[in-house]
Amino acid sequence: MSRAHTLKIEHIPFHADPILAAIDAHSEAWAVFQVAPEAAVSQRHAELCAATARLLATPCATRFGELALLLHLRWHLEHDEVLDTAMQARTADLAASLNLDFPPCSPRLPRPCQAVLAPARRP
Fold first, then answer.
1. pLDDT value of residue 41
2. C-alpha–C-alpha distance, residues 97 and 119, integer Å
């Protein structure tokens, strides 16, 4: 008799994915940086950079975690116009891993109010 080999896959509950804690920590560091007083800006920026490095280095254990990280990174790339190549590369890798056929980050379009006001501002 031969024993059938079965593939044992560990199932990780989506809420136990370590990337979710990293996303929360990064969001907290970003929020603190946004409201930092002038005297604390450099310290808060260093904390934000450290949180970003941890975020990009933390592995995703679930597809839910991959999607959550992709949405988080895309928001920061679009909202803050981040030019960090590591963040852009991780976003592209996540989009490919999730088999998404849209660009990792949407092209920057003018906001409606900017499009309306732009002709009036021209000299």
1. 92
2. 42
Segments making up each domain of the chain, as ranges: 16-121
Residue 20 has pLDDT above 90, yes or no: yes
What beta strand segments (E) does the chain contain?
A: none
Which tokens go with 2?
């031969």
Q: CA 60 to CA 47: how far, in whole Å? A: 22
DSSP conformation letters of 27-62? HHHHHHHHT--GGGHHHHHHHHHHHHHHHHHSPP-S
pLDDT digits (tens, 9 = 90+) for 78-116: 887 777 888 989 999 999 988 887 655 555 555 444 444
